[in-house]
Every structure is written in C-alpha cells, then in structure tokens.
Design brief:
The chain is α/β, with parallel strands linked by helices. It has one domain: Collagenase (Catalytic Domain) (3-Layer(aba) Sandwich), CATH 3.40.390. 47% of the residues lie in helices and 19% in strands. It has a four-stranded mixed sheet with strand order 1-2-4-3. Helix 4 packs across helix 5. The chain starts with a strand and ends in an 8-residue tail after the last helix.
Length: 150
C-alpha cells in the first residue's frame, strides 16, 4: 500500500532528517499494516506549539514527542485521509541525546510510532504495548535502525 505524505516544518530543527526520509519512514510503517492507499500530514513543531496541542487535545502538560490525530473515515470520500501526526522537534532532539541514540533513529521511531497509532495500534495495556513495540522494532529493523526499546 502507498501512503501520500505531506511534511510541514514549522520551526527551526536541529538535525532534521529531511522530508524524503520522513516520507520513506511513514510509508514503510503504513505499508506494513495497511490494506489501502491513504494520505497523512506530518507537522514538525517547536515547544510552544507542541505544548499547546498537547494541552488542548490530550490534556497533557508541556510538549510531548509525538501526537497522532486519526480522522474518522467518510465512506464516500474519494481518498482515505489517515490523519495528522505532530512531532515536536526539540523534544525528539533532547530525547535522542538523553537516550544516547542517533538522531535519525529516534526521528524514524517517532514517525513509525505515530503512523501505527493512526492505523489503530496502541499501548494502553501490556498486550497491546508488546504488539506495537514488536511491530515498531520490525519496521525500524527493515529500515536499518536498531530496536528502539533497548
């Protein structure tokens, strides 16, 4: 399956992997679990916008690494709109440093993680978390990255 990805960069980003890589990672995750073509928007934001979106839509405090907003599907729509993913660049950068991970590996993980959420995967309970983590690890391995949870 093919995913049409629009990447919007709305902040200065240290070590941004580039639109081509983000699109490739999103498509790899999507094609691992999807049965039809779709479209997604990935918005890269700073701390202020990340915190505001997290507060407004998830009732969270401060910015988080990735937020996923799945769309309800209209059966009569000419194409499937999967949803939006918001990645907070400063948080991803800080986490990569703290976890001693290459920046691209952590960016890839956040993209894959967000896509899987849009495709219905979650990590609310232990069984679902194990399923999602295993799938993330397999996708990232195929992309040439190490396991994200080691």
């Amino acid at each position: 399956m093919k995913l049409n990805t629009e990447v919007q960069q709305h902040c200065e980003v240290r070590q941004f992997p580039g639109v081509e890589h983000v699109s490739l990672w999103a498509d790899a995750a999507f094609s691992s679990v999807a049965t039809e073509n779709a479209e997604v928007t990935i918005r890269v934001v700073g701390l202020k916008e990340g915190a505001e979106l997290n507060r407004k839509y998830r009732k969270g405090m401060g910015a988080t690494n990735v937020l996923s907003f799945a769309y309800a599907q209209d059966p009569f729509a000419p194409r499937k709109l999967l949803g939006d993913i918001v990645i907070c660049a400063p948080v991803v950068h800080r986490e990569a440093l703290a976890q001693n991970k290459p920046s691209n590996a952590h960016w890839a993980h956040m993209v894959v993680h967000g896509i899987l959420h849009l495709c219905g995967y979650d990590h609310v309970d232990e069984t679902d978390a194990q399923t999602m983590e295993q799938l993330e690890t397999e996708i990232l391995f195929r992309l040439g990255f190490p396991a994200p949870y080691n």
